[in-house]
Amino acid sequence: MANKIKGEISVKHEGKDYTLKIDMNVIAEIEDELDEGWGIFEGRMAAGTARVKHMRTVLFHSMRENHPEATVKLAGDILSEDAEVFGRLLSAAYPDAPADGETPEGNAPAAA
Questions:
Q1: In a domain, 11, yes or no
Q2: Measuring CA to CA, which of 23, 70, 76, 90 is 20 to 30 A from 82?
């Protein structure tokens, strides 16, 4: 069962439940595989220029802790069946992120 507080989501594929999660360990694995920083990938996502291959890589690594038997092909099959899974996964990883057009609230110091 997915734990939303930990940034997890559940996905059902071919009758089996999978728990996906993005945390710092997963991000480090993704950075190693893509040979670029997470911020660069996030920038591509925001600009709409991210490659599907990279999205599949994120899904694959987000599955590995709970499903060590997962394969890149399985991640691609899940993404093909449910294209919205990627957005749900990122939303779970960043639950407090502002929606498009919103300004984040916080305790930033006032401008001088």
A1: yes
A2: 23
Whether the Cβ atoms of residue 59 and residue 78 lie closer than 8 Å to each other: yes
Number of domains, the chain: 1
Expressed as residue numbers, the domain containing 71 is 4-93
Element (H, E) at 60: helix 52-63
Whether the Cβ atoms of residue 92 and residue 4 lie closer than 8 Å to each other: yes
Provide the token pair at 42: 């996030």
pLDDT tens for 7-61 read 799 999 999 999 999 999 999 999 999 999 999 988 988 898 989 999 999 999 9
What does pLDDT average to over the chain? 84
